[in-house]
Design a protein that fits this description.
The protein has about 160 residues and is α+β, with helices and mostly antiparallel strands. The protein is built from 3 helices and 11 strands; from the N terminus they run αβββααββββββββ. A hairpin with a 2-residue loop joins strand 7 and strand 8.
């Protein structure tokens, strides 16, 4: 039988899934399993949101939910204030970058107006730089992640005032 996929083959598979519009791909070999899924109907990025699970790794999606629930109960006054804002969340696990490259101007600052579809940051996942586009139009109220820091799937990145 064939040997497990190498990193380059996995990256090519991710690119293929992103371009093809396929919502799920699963490959299983003797000692290797990879599953790539994309949310149906979301075409908001250069590369589609990708979630990868390898059989030996724990599912990365389970951890953020309890953390978010705990912080919502502790910060009730802040949660009520933030209720009018839209939260833009990370569509994948990776490293968050506010600019397209070192020494280049950042995509958005607090107070900037954004339009739906406009690039607002980059998330690097497996050496692929995925340009993340705004899901809503509005004004950036808060940047919730520091530049060059790791982010989890569904982690809040920006607060936007849609008014």
């Amino acid at each position: 039988m064939s040997e497990p996929m190498n990193l380059t083959q996995i990256q090519e598979l991710i690119k293929f899934v992103a371009k093809s519009g396929v919502s799920e791909v699963e490959i299983e070999q003797k000692d290797f399993k990879i599953k790539i899924t994309t949310p149906a109907g979301k075409v908001q990025m250069v590369a589609a949101p990708v979630q990868m699970q390898v059989a030996t790794a724990p599912a990365p999606v389970a951890a953020p939910a309890p953390v978010a629930a705990a912080s919502a109960t502790v910060e009730k006054p802040a949660a009520a204030l933030d209720a009018k804002y839209v939260t833009i969340k990370a569509p994948m696990i990776g490293t968050f970058y506010r600019s397209p490259g070192p020494g280049k101007p950042i995509f958005v600052n607090v107070g900037d107006s954004i339009e739906k579809g406009k690039p607002i940051c980059i998330i690097e996942a497996m050496k692929l730089f995925n340009e993340i586009e705004a899901e809503v139009s509005g004004k950036i109220v808060k940047v919730l992640v520091d530049d060059a820091k790791p982010v989890e799937y569904d982690q809040p990145l920006f607060l936007v005032d849609p008014a």
